UniProtKB/TrEMBL annotation:
GO terms for molecular function: 4 iron, 4 sulfur cluster binding; ATP binding; metal ion binding; transferase activity; tRNA binding. Residues 50-219 form the tRNA(Ile)-lysidine/2-thiocytidine synthase N-terminal domain. SUPFAM superfamilies: Adenine nucleotide alpha hydrolases-like. Coiled coil: none annotated. ATP binds at residues 53-55, 59, 79, 154, 159. NCBIfam families: TIGR00269 family protein. Keywords: 4Fe-4S, ATP-binding, Iron, Iron-sulfur, Magnesium, Metal-binding, Nucleotide-binding, Transferase, Zinc. The keyword ATP-binding applies. Zn(2+) 2 binds at residues 272, 275, 284, 287. GO terms for cellular component: cytosolic tRNA wobble base thiouridylase complex. PANTHER family: ATPASES OF THE PP SUPERFAMILY-RELATED, TRNA-5-METHYLURIDINE(54) 2-SULFURTRANSFERASE. This is tRNA(Ile)-lysidine/2-thiocytidine synthase N-terminal domain-containing protein.
Length: 301
């Protein structure tokens, strides 16, 4: 099979649009798609300080590589969750990825910071639940403490489609109201954006291979059986039957998202009496989960 735009052998055949592309034209296509997402949703400006939340996996590795290639001012943050046999391996990949693009890397080790790793805490909350709360809190506080303008994550269209699908099934309208490629900053909440919002996991894997990015393929041991993975399987089956389902579903949601905006709770946002960060109650979820008595200091020394 030949590339649609030249006589070279095809590197990949896209499902939507249905075109074969050689390695060079695929890289060009992928990067143009990401740049268009940044511009369409006005994710950030050239003069903003950008913190990329990096995990060692393909998504964050690719988004940090592309933003560096686009000459954005980026630094990376890796949160070592203390998951034995997994987190340290991810850290080694993160170090290689940041060295490859010559970008500063900051590492926060949960076990050193909080005394326990993810999976070791005695709590009634599911592991993935308090892990998510911990990652969101630390990435936001690190960005806030160190004057970053925006936090970038590697969420792609497969992630977004499965998230929307799951929340529609359960009619979690408050989550739907806030879902999208950009979550504006407010007060001590730093703006969060998703440059890979309109590219698929398959395209990300192909791009990583095309430009020589090495990444962790292991899954977190606590993610086994996660319902979001089942939602992804369902969405992928629909995509095979009708290519373009994911992008149409997500873009269609964005056009109708205003229907859910009235579901956002307008309650007073307090300052956590422990750490001073935004909280719905007297103590924020992070400080409550980890039973903290004083704020964690995440400023760069």
């Amino acid at each position: 099979m030949k590339c649609k735009f030249c006589e070279k052998e095809a590197y990949i055949k896209l499902y939507h649009p249905k075109i074969p592309l050689c390695r060079e034209h695929f890289i060009e296509y992928f990067e143009r798609k990401v740049r268009r997402t940044i511009e369409r949703y006005k994710l950030f400006k050239k003069d903003e300080r950008i913190l990329v939340a990096i995990s060692g996996g393909k998504d964050s590795a690719v988004v940090s590589y592309i933003l560096k290639k686009f000459n954005y001012d980026i630094q990376c943050l890796y949160i070592n969750l203390g998951v034995r046999g997994y987190s340290d391996k991810c850290e080694e990949y993160v170090k290689k990825q940041c060295k490859m693009i010559d970008t500063p890397l900051h590492i926060v080790k949960i076990r050193e910071l909080l005394g326990s790793g993810i999976g070791e805490l005695r709590t009634t909350r599911p592991t993935c639940s308090y892990c998510g709360t911990t990652k969101r809190y630390i990435s936001n506080k690190f960005a806030y403490d160190n004057n970053f303008d925006v936090v970038v994550t590697g969420h792609n269209i497969d992630d977004e489609a499965s998230f929307i699908f799951g929340n529609v099934l359960n009619w979690n309208t408050q989550y739907l109201a806030k879902q999208g490629p950009i979550l504006p900053g407010e007060g001590k909440f730093v703006k969060k954006v998703k440059p890979l919002y309109e590219v698929t996991e398959r395209e990300i894997v192909a791009y990583a291979s095309a430009v020589g990015i090495d990444y962790v393929t292991d899954k977190c041991p606590y993610s086994k059986g996660a319902i979001t993975l089942r939602y992804k399987e369902i969405i992928n089956q629909l995509e095979k039957i009708r290519p373009g389902t994911k992008i149409k579903f997500v873009r269609g949601f964005l056009k109708k998202r205003h229907l859910f905006e009235g579901e956002i709770e307008k309650g007073k946002i307090n300052e956590c009496k422990v750490c001073g960060m935004p909280s719905g109650g007297k103590v924020c979820s992070f400080c409550r989960i980890w039973d903290l008595r004083e704020a964690v200091d995440l400023s760069i020394k």
